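Incident log, support desk, overnight shift.

02:14 A customer reports that sequence design results differ from what the structure should imply. Their input is reproduced verbatim below. On-call engineer (initials T.W.) acknowledged and began investigating.
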């Protein structure tokens, strides 16, 4: 049997199992959010001045970026888990969150004196950011890798990497409620590094555990 014929058969089977396929991913997403939220509320919690911070522009913007990343990554992940997915057009929406963050960084550099750039970039919570986002994201990532094992992605390493992005987006959205560093310069540096850890872990997990 040719590879193309095999993919068509798998795609047809995936369509026949559409409802259960959708329910499986919905369950994985629900459990992922529950696990990350349990860690957040059980061990971390929101920042004490969250009500005041919510009245600023920088604090809510963090949720826009991280939430957008989570949503686009989840959509791409579900699409890539199907055998007929090519992977190219599915990844285009993933650029939305980074582009939005880059625009915010450019605006920040324009309105903040250059003497304050390094201070805003380093912040006061960079070590917590690099540890807490992966901590909250590793459970969701494991669930997404498990869901991919029961799907049929043709590019498992890529699907695993996108799973890491999705897990990182969920974890970063929760962590943003705790973090007192709201500058886009901080977000683009430390949030990106933390999410990159999960992305690399996801690519490795996809290559090792999702191969078929």
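02:41 Re-run completed on a clean worker. Output:
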């Amino acid at each position: 049997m040719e590879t193309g014929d095999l993919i068509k058969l798998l795609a047809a089977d995936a369509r026949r199992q559409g409802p259960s396929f959708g329910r499986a991913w919905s369950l994985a997403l629900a459990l992922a959010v529950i696990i990350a939220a349990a860690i957040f509320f059980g061990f971390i919690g929101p920042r004490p001045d969250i009500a005041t911070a919510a009245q600023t522009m920088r604090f809510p913007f963090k949720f826009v970026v991280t939430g957008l990343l989570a949503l686009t990554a989840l959509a791409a992940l579900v699409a890539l888990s199907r055998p007929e997915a090519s992977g190219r057009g599915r990844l285009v929406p993933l650029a939305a969150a980074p582009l939005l963050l880059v625009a915010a960084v450019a605006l920040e550099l324009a309105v903040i004196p250059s003497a304050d750039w390094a201070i805003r970039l380093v912040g006061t919570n960079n070590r917590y950011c690099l540890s807490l986002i992966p901590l909250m994201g590793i459970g969701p990532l494991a669930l997404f890798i498990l869901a991919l094992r029961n799907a049929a992605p043709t590019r498992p390493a890529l699907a695993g990497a996108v799973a890491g992005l999705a897990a990182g987006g969920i974890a970063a959205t929760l962590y943003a409620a705790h973090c007192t560093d709201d500058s886009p310069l901080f977000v683009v540096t430390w949030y990106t590094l933390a999410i990159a850890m999960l992305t690399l872990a996801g690519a490795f997990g996809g290559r090792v555990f999702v191969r078929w």
